[in-house]
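Known limitations

Structure tokens in this collection are predictions and should be treated as such. Users comparing against experimental data should check residue numbering before alignment. To illustrate the layout, the record for Adenylate/guanylate cyclase domain-containing protein is reproduced below. The input appears on top and the generated tokens appear beneath it.
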Amino acid sequence: MDSYSLIYFEKPEGVISNWEYFWYQIPYGAPGILTFVVGLFLSYFAFQKFRKSKEDDKFFHLNLTISFISFGCVGLVLTTRAWIQDVETLVLWNDLLYFLVAPLAPTAFYLAYHMTGKQSKLLLYYSYVCWFASFVLYLGVILGKGFETTVFEFPFGKYPRGSAFVRPWGILAPLGYFLLILPSFIKHYKYIRKHYHLTLFHGVNLLFLLTTLNAPSILGFKVYPGGFFLFIPMLLVAYGVFRSDFFDVNELLFQKNGMFYFLFALLSFVLIFISFGVSFGLSPNAYESAKWYPWGIPPVLSVFGAVFLSIIVAGANPSARINQLCAFALILTGFYVIQSVPLKLNISYVVQLRISQMTFVAFAFAPSIMVRLVFEAIGQKSPVWLQGIDFLCITAAILAPSPYLFVGYFDYPWSRVHHGGPAELLVGANGAIALVLVLFTFIRNKGYINFASKWIIGSFLLSALLLLAALLPSHGIPIYPIADFQFIPAFLLGYAVLRHGALSLEGRTIQLSQRLANLGLITMAIAAVLYFPLIREQYGVGESAFHLTMIVLPLVLFNYLVVYIMSRPLAEELDISYFLLDLEKQKADEEREKALIAQDKAEEAREESEKLLLNILPYKVAQELKTKGSVNPVRFENATVLFTDFKGFTKVAEGMDEQSLIEELDACFTQFDEIILRNNLEKLKTIGDSYMCAGGLPVENRTSAIDACLAALEIQSFMNQLKEIKSALNLPFWELRLGIHTGPVVAGVVGRFKFAYDIWGDTVNTASRMESGGETGKINVSKDTYELVKYFFETEYRGKIHGKNKGDLDMYFVHRLRPRYSQDPDGKAPNQYFREVYARISRGANIRWKKES
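Generated tokens:
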């Protein structure tokens, strides 16, 4: 057995290929990829918030969306500097990505301005300055002068110098933070503390501090840029903004199928990466002097068996927590075994090392997921001690890309095996602790656990034991790593899932997705058979079959994933719908008649009571009467009263029988009722042939005079049409006078047994004088009403007219809407422009009118 000690993160002397350079540099750039992914993820939720937010908050959420994208792209820029060796390619990518990075500074300053309650105007003005610097940066990039080909070379990457177009932008953000944001936050800390969650405050500060920590590397100092870790403050900011409707973890992951879609995305990436990696990364000499047969067969079976089962389990019921936890545990187990396959091939050890490190980042969370699965299976809440397991999982995941995961390797007859370092021991110890605690919980509760759940728990206990046994060869004990046989506990789990129905969901529509997935499988199998002779020329029969399996099987599973998983939520919903419909149908036959009869009676009684009350009183007054048993009198300062009266009513009535008279009067007043209802007025009463209504009550508004004039125009138009019809039929007709006045009134309910909503005050008397002092077919309004409506309607000043007991009063005729506000030639119907101005007045706006020429 040969052993080999690692010298970490040091590239060999001399020229190496871009491909080798990439593998050596993976740990340095990986945090930037995480920052980029988190930025995209959070920008999506910020954009959804922008779409649903009120007008006042839309601009804030738009800036938040752009800010998340920009900070995420900072991580991607730093990753290109870590992974790309060719300087010209590096400069090109930096130029392109800075189009998305540039809005970082101005949007961040606007967020800070918004957090201070828009009190620190300097932050807003400074954001404008930053936008100007961003446009200067864009100009430099467009001219091909964004970044120079002179670079600083560090172990963690190559950093090109920014040109004179870029430098002002790079200086303004940190300078503004220390000179403006920090003092403003200190000054308005009480306001921020009152209106925002502290995580938002800390997140914004940390965003600027980590971004500022990019400066040393740009200036040539060997300091790892803090921008790689911007995902941490971005998550803090997101929590501070969205905590009420986004970071409900249970709802996000399970009720909204967030875990389901995360698993889908994760699996898709891994499967495509495996297929393309084998296609383009493995040459024929990878199988020379290698141990791929027979030692590579068990891990390949384990990887693809675990992935296949995870697809079935996850798709069986996407919204079920136990399904998603089970699928996640299978995937993490598969991740561990993935790293065993390259160790059995003749490829560069740095590639083997990096693949293992990447898989261990995910696999480090296996103890946490497994424990949660066990407690979900036995129907108990997660224990408090699980937080300690979680902490160790996070620590191990952070250490996985570091030199502390492995310290070399052992060369056994069956393959290379990494020599475990402190980080690997931490993963193993964490798994052992979880195993002991889960075993203890299982023994204590085994009497309450059903048979299928026992199979689930047993399969994962076996999986954990196999994984712990892998620690022996990684520390020099020459035992074949039996963790490669993870397909055994995986298939045991599959048996529990499929045979006993613990997690699966059978249904009619699921069969469709199953058939589609099988059709894709057959298609790819045919393609593999046709492709086999082509690679047979380069490889032996066994190598060709193994190579083809590693290319095709991930694509087959990807096809199965897309067709089976993506159609599964719809299938689940349809199956549940079918079940519920059948259930409801059975119950409906027994309960329907009784429920409908009882409901109809109750509804009729309620509606009749409501209808009677609302026919007598306005809605608000009726609600107050129902709640309190009485109605308090209320004074309204700007109510508008409208009176109508038929001229010659007595004379025309004399020639009509009683029935016809009542029907005629009822037809007119019914039409009046509909008109005033459309125009936001309240009918008060009729006295013989006189009709009285009012606006601006029982809910005050600023448009009562306009509403009354619009209603009067409609009533006038109706009476003119009625007059034309009666004249054509040679029948007698009534002509109408209308009077309107605006002023203060007192409104209330009088009577105990027969309620009546009425108003009192001099305004009522004046409105009556407007009607009696008017002319038939005309709308007569007072000066107070005229002042409120003169910009909307064409009016005619009549002079001072004597009103009984009122003296001389200024009176005006309202003829029609002004042309600019009317959509018809007669000026009866308002247009869209009128409605826009009207809406602004309703909301409290003060309109400044231009002088009429």
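For this record: Residues 244-250 have pLDDT under 50 and may be disordered. The two ends are 104 Å apart (CA to CA). Please report discrepancies through the issue tracker.
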